[in-house]
Amino acid sequence: MAPIAAADIPSLGLLYKLKKLDKAQTTPHNDRIGLIRGDITTLAVDAIVNAANNSLLGGGGVDGAIHRAAGRGLVTECRTLKGCDTGSAKITDAYNLPCKKVIHTVGPVYDDLRPERSEAALRGCYRSSLELAVQHGLKTIAFSGISTGVYGYPSLDACQVACDTVKQFMDQNGKKLDKVIFVTFEAKDVRSYDSTLPLYFPPDTETSVDQEKAAEDQAAEAEATASKLPDVPTTDPADADPDHAQKKQKHDGES
Ligand code: APR
């Protein structure tokens, strides 16, 4: 499959215009958040984010797909990194992949007895990956669904953590990144992002734009009508026509 350029990955702004996502209110990040369903190894972005394990030596799922597509050079470099803590991230070159760098982050194995610990670790994955991207001057970054596969993080919960962490980061550092892309793969994640993204990154409210436009049109119409009306008289018409007063008295007397 031919690599997909970052510019070709639809932004939320475009998806909203195409009515692919539901409505809500406005947020400044819509043109810098992307969403695509597919194989993350085909994205020709600055960085893709791998859902790795603590060894960083590869595995199944998206980790396996990235190592297969990158080739042996990736695991050779990963070996020099001596592993990675859960909730943290490390960066390598991309070798045969179309992207420039691979950020390896280790998500939590979901612990439903202590979900708050899992949430904190997952936030750490997104935040440390974004920080690494900014430190390395990378402008477009694509995230796989960290921990939502083998590690069992419920898709909707993970998606909310991902959206909230990315939104907070963009609120503070947004200008440093051109596009943060969420890559979905399985249907469960597509459903989660389609329903969650409009809550964190809603579109411009068309109604406010329409209302403004309607008000401008009304004002223009009123002005156009006003320009057709005769000037408002500045003197009493009677003064101009001396017989007017007698005619008026006679008319008033008859009515
Ligand atoms: N492109 C994009 N997303 C993918 C791809 C792909 N080619 N393959 C799988 N995914 C999605 C899955 O659908 C899931 O939503 O990536 C998400 C993460 O799933 P996993 O790869 O299972 O990762 P995770 O749940 O974080 O578990 C990590 O699994 O693969 C091993 O070595 C890895 O031990 C680590 C563990």
Q: Report the major sheet.
A: 6 strands, mixed
Low-confidence runs: none
Strand runs, count: 8
Mean pLDDT, rounded to whole units?
A: 86
Ligand set: adenosine-5-diphosphoribose
Spatial strand arrangement across the major sheet: 2-8-7-4-6-5
Tell me what the structure shows.
It is built from 9 helices and 8 strands. With 255 residues, it is an alpha/beta fold. Helix 4 packs parallel to helix 5 and helix 5 packs parallel to helix 6 (187-200). The model has no long low-confidence stretch (mean pLDDT 86). The structure holds adenosine-5-diphosphoribose. Residues 39-41, 51-53, 59-65, 107, 144-151, 183, 185-186, 189 line the site of adenosine-5-diphosphoribose (APR). Adenosine-5-diphosphoribose (APR) binds next to strand 4 and helix 2.
